[in-house]
Write a structure and sequence with these properties.
InterPro entries: ZIP, ZIP_Transporter. The chain has about 190 residues and is an all-alpha fold. The chain has 7 helices and no strands. Helix content is about 85%, strand content about 0%.
Length: about 190
Amino acid sequence: MLGANNSHHGHSHHSHTGDVKHQSIAAIAWMVILGDGIHNFSDGLAIGAAFANSITGGISTSIAVLCHELPHEIGDFAVLLRAGMNMRQAVMYNCVSSILCFIGMLIGVVLGNINEASLWIFACVGGMFLYIALVDMLPEMTSVETKHGENPYCHLLFQCAGMILGAGIMLIVAAYEPDLLSVLDNH
């Protein structure tokens, strides 16, 4: 009798590869959309609060966000393609998560006009950026797999060059902030 009950449950335990592939695409898509959406929302908050404080702060924050978002969005796109999505689906999911940046920017501009709120926004977003850099990016940089015959120092050179380029862009923006401000005020 026990054997008879276990042999027929009223539902199937057969694995269909199409269903498994569809479920794994959906899981990865939701992870990318939610994770990247929260990240984009915080980027928007930072940009909006920075523009509410000053034009030059907004421009420098926008440049910083652009510099870190380009490789990040390309990586998300690659993850979605590797998960089995076609190009159209991957672009759509990336665009959906990117819309949250505009929503965050609008909220950031509104809250950025309140002095205490903008300080909290900058503190929280700065903490998120540090968290992402230390928990997500740093382990990725140290776990680069080199192919046979490749020099591991070549990867280190490219990584250091990228960090120096990013810091250099921000240094140039900071050094020429008064000139940038006068150009923007004249127009």
